[in-house]
Amino acid sequence: MRLSEADSHALAGATAAPTYLHDGTTVMSWLNTRDHKRVGVMFLVSVIFFFLIGGIFALLLRFKLLEPGPFFVEAIGYNRLFTLHGIVMIFLFLIPSIPSAFGNFVLPLMLGTRDVAFPRLNLASFYLYLAGAVLAIWAMVHGGTDTGWTFYTPYSSTTATEVFPVLIAVFILGFSSILTGLNFIVTVHTLRAPGLNWMRLPLFVWGIYGTSVIQVLATPVLGITVLVVAVERVGGFGLFDPARGGDPVLFQHMFWFYSHPAVYIMILPAMGVISETVCAFSRKNPFGYKAIAMSSLGIAFVGFFTWGHHMFVAGQSTFNAGAFGILSMFVGVFTAIKVFNWVGTMYRGAISFKTPFAYICGFLYFLVFGGMTGVALATTSLDIHWHDTYFVVAHFHFIMVGASVMGFLAALHYWFPKMFGKMYPEGWGLVAASLIILGFNATFIPQFLLGNFGMPRRYYQYPEHFQALHVASTAGATLLGFGFLIIFIYLVIALKWGGRSESNPWRSKGFEWLTASPPPTHNFDEIPTITQMPHDYRTHEPSGVIRGS
Amino acid sequence: MNEVLRRLLFLPEQASTFARDFDQLHYFVILTTFVMSTAVGLTAVFFFVRYRRRSETQTTPHIEPKTWLEALFVTVPLIFFLAWFFLGYREFVRQTTPPIDSMDVYVMGKKWMWKFAYPDGPNAINVLRVPAGQNVRLLMTSRDVIHSFFVPEFRVKADVLPGRYTQLWFNATTPGRYQILCAEYCGAGHSIMRGEVIVLRPQDYEDWLAFQKRGLAEKQDGQPTALDFAPPLGNLVDQGRRIAADQGCLKCHTTDGTRHIGPTWLDLYHRREKLSDGSVVDVDEAYLTESMMDPAAKVVAGFQPVMPSFQGKLAGPEVAALVEYIKSLQTDAVRTGPSQGPSYAPIRGR
Amino acid sequence: MHSNAGLPPGILGHHFSSLARQNEAMRLGMWLFLATEVLLFAGLFTGYTVYRFQFPEAFAECSRHLELTLGTVNTLVLITSSLTVALAIHYARTDQPRAAAICLVITLLFALSFLGIKAVEYAEHFHERSLPGKYYAYEAVKIPGAAMFFSVYFLMTGLHGLHVIAGMSVLSWILRRTLQGRYSSQYYTGLELGGLYWHLVDLIWIFLYPLLYLI
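^ inputs. structure came back:
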């Protein structure tokens, strides 16, 4: 098992070719790039920017909620804030985050190839993302919409705020998402290195593959739904307006047909990251490779049949509720399989508690707790009390922040040296991780209790007996915000002034670590031949995968 | 036990027949969740300590799970989830199937208030009175956008849709006041679209209902807000006729010209009456109203000052109705034939 | 053995090991994209189904008032255009780029006439006020739900019309490439996939036509 000379040199830190970062340093070389790594970095910077924007909205909301009565903003301002918080966080951060930033960077490396299948389409995805983002910002600046990110009709087709540009922005962002997913599916099918058959694919690739299938199949339905609402606002067509014979519940069916699979778009990539990092930091092969891989597909498939569990009290029939409820139970099982297999991976491993591992621990706890509260919500009768209360808010934040964002942060720290050749400060990493985990608990556990207590969502004012829990939640949110800020600061410092890192500081046997960090533009001097599974730690030299056997 | 867990989990008091069953299932689900996440967390911690990395070049065995173990990972959660589903769905079916003997109340949600109407009784805004221990079914619709009717203490919620009726039912166990919250975002007033369910003891409820049917509904229930002025239903004249009978006016005043304890109302309007102090007054709306509020001020000559004051006993609209009724009693307007049935003025704005 | 020699420059991507691989990737990509287009229209077909069941008389009556002749002509126009685009692919594959280009031009002309006929139909609707939603004022049909039929009609044919325009851009782009001599028996995948997109546009109409005009 030998590496080619050039790759050996590169791994040893000597650079034969310039890294992708230095191969062309003009702004145009970035804006016109075909390199998946540069597209990934541009996405990374953008999604982090929008995460900060969405986070600021969140802190403003929590600040207002310190007081039960009118305070700090007016009702309409508050309603706009929570709508934009949702839209920015979901469409501008969560959906693109791991796939478009890390997937773009790492997927071709993991497959042992030089680029994604359609590099120019990849760049187009990025520009579509920017276009949607700019339109959304424009709408925000002009007051923004106040419908909630769920755009329920007939409120969204009749409210006076700037809904139309936001709907078009969502459509454009959806298109970007579709093209990314399409690109990834074709890449996985057609650009695998020799010897890399499906059952040797890294688990992150399986996660991205499942995500991409959902992106391609579900997003068009969102597209047509927002398009119809947009036309209804402008043209009074009345497809969802009961005054003209329309059915507002039809909107809900069409909207949730996308938006439920969408939550799997938001979590599957994070699960893929956890699969990679739990193996790397336990120095251990994945416990049930097939089970984890197949459960990604299982989630993608079954997730399409469960959308009605958002509508248990919406006026659909009792039979419908039962059907969707029982299907939702099956989706939960796939996640359970993954959790057990991740913990099983740690068994007899050699665990190193670095920052990414701290995020793995947070992820596991939050995913189990948040996921099971999701199953609890799908228990039809319990949802009657919890629907549209803070219990639901807490549930999805446990998954979207507690799990997805932890996955994102794990990826960010794990692949930081890979992408930039620098190392983040480990001590600060652990401090920030602790603040985030603590702050997260302090923010969202009170919200579960608020939901139980009866506090509805999207409330500008609230009855006074809820105040204590709200104050606790805001305190937690402040802590959480600090944690994120610390990360942002030390990563920027590390980028500019940090020490150079080795090519494989984690001694990980994931395939992306076979090239230098940062990689050269063409990824590999010679395309490797893969002969074994990733994360095989029975030996301690680097994985032998190069042609020649 | 139930009470301890209920308080720990911040669940509201259990004020309906659903609440206790809901809470029992809730405890089962939440406790399992706690146990599982703690178990996973502790296992991870244990593994981290037991299998921590001891050297940088440490290798690890390649371990594949046994099939039965994977099967266990699948079946145990699935059994729990399906158990929850079946327990919950049984409850759900019960909660979405109103019993036949339910008392119906119509609910209309609109931005940003709740209006209640009993089929044969009073209307109310933002306040729903029900008897304890009685199955109550709410038939709900919306005037504008989607709202949702939510009473935390009853553990009930249902969306309220425009263009459609939705229903929910409950049986309130404990007399008291419970907040109604709107649970579907509906605009600027969403968080103040609140109401109140007042659960009365059955006897108190009967008393209240009887009292309402005497016509004092508008004064008793809820505060009409500036957003909505519900005009009185029906013909003012008919209302006035009813009030006159209820309030006992007709004990002293006749409507057919016969002299009785008080002046007859027939042709009273714009009659020129001679008062006991010698002055003459034109009987107009002001005088009629003053006579009801302060009858001793101007007494018609030849009659005793025995009329009681109705200050505080009649609301403004009722006074207006009486005045209209009196105005309608003109000789050439009095019907001599049989009644043609009630006549209703068109209802404005609903 | 794959022969990448003799190809015009810029056809084979640097990251593909062979042209066969690249063709496979392009085809898979296009089929995935077509799937997304089908799902986009699926939302509207769902709306059509829901409201058809809700307003059966209105839908039937309004359908009778559409211009059946024009709709049928349009269907024939589109089907023929699919034939001509298939012919274009055939000619490219047999190294007859000029014939291929002519077929593409004919396809574009057919597409244009489709749009023209549709414009005539739309003008008629505007004239007789058989318009969607709140603009509906058609004297001949006053059944509840008639406005909904026309909302669905305009949404579906409008979105389809946009896709016809998109398809025409794709075909024009391919025509340009054909005239530049890019396609031959060695490589015609781009033309094939553009044709595939056009076939989808046609296929969607073949579903729209009976649903709106015939039943």
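The longest helix of chain C spans residues 19-54. Chains C and B do not touch (no CB pair under 8 Å).
thumbs up if we can close this ticket
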